[in-house]
Amino acid sequence: xxxxxxxxxxxxxxxxxxKKESGAEIWDTDPVFLSERVEFKDWCxxxxxxxxxxxxxxxxxxxxxNPKQSSLMMGENECIRILDVGxxxxxxxxxxxxxFGRSVEVYGVEVVALxxxxxxxxxxxxxxxxxxxxxxxxxxxxxxEYFDAIYTSDVLGHVQNVSNWxxxxxxxxxxxxxxxxxxxxxxxxxxxxxxxxxxxxxxxxPHAEFHISLYSKKELQNLLADAGFVIKKMYSAFWxxxxxxxxxxxxxxxxxxxxxxxxxRFFILxxxxxxxxxxxxxxxxxxxxxxxxYGLIEMYVVGKFIEAQGYVILAKKK
Length: 318
Fold this sequence. Notes:
This protein is of the alpha/beta class. The chain has one domain (2-238, 303-317): Rossmann fold (3-Layer(aba) Sandwich). The chain has helices at residues 2-7, 40-45, 50-64, 68-73, 91-100, 113-125, 162-172, 192-199, 217-226, 241-244, 247-254, 267-282, 286-302, and strands at residues 15-19, 25-28, 80-85, 104-110, 131-134, 147-153, 173-183, 229-236, 311-317. The chain has a seven-stranded mixed β-sheet, sandwiched between helices. The protein has a two-stranded antiparallel sheet with strand order 1-2. Helix 11 (247-254) crosses helix 12.
């Protein structure tokens, strides 16, 4: 696998949520920041990565307000550390190293051993240093209050014991440290299309078999509070996902329903999905960029009030 990976075009990745023969779900993406230094034009690219726009900026804001930054500027022996929990194949680790340079140590942990190997290779190929470790999904092998910020995205829904997992994040985070998280969730009341299909026996969650811990917005808030975090902001992500992410619905509507007793099931939604899927694919990458930019605007305008399926959570340790 590693030999195959190294031979791929540098712009090619395996993609999000690809199931391998071992049964593991692989998350392989490219870093957002490809140049050696992150400049203004690079930050503008984040406008087309709405979740990362929110999460990266929260980490950056938290570290900028960290009193250690002034010590670093004066050359004093201080160290700032970021942890990515569920780092996949290392794209975010590379982004953080390019954002902060040598002034920040970046660590990643991952439960899929193959992804740890791929992350180490990708980090080396991008000319940065970050430490990646395998972990069991429960116990972080770091001292108490070791990190100044923690990033974790698309992980909570895969965790067996969420309460213990959150307490473990809290344990290794310093008081006042930033937690930047995207968490999958139960279908909220405003997830109209997904709820309509679910009530009729069709689950359009493309990663449903791997999601073992999904909670409502209120349950997520309570879990984080019980673990010792204070939520500063919380946004629902992609309420209008049927229109902007038709690929998430395509297999369920157009493959799984082929064997339904009546091919007229979901006739309108199926054909509308085909049209949206074809249009987005035909106009890619412009259609994809426009849809992602819409997602960012949506989060700012209605994200605080909508309950869909997935939340950007910006929090701090008490």
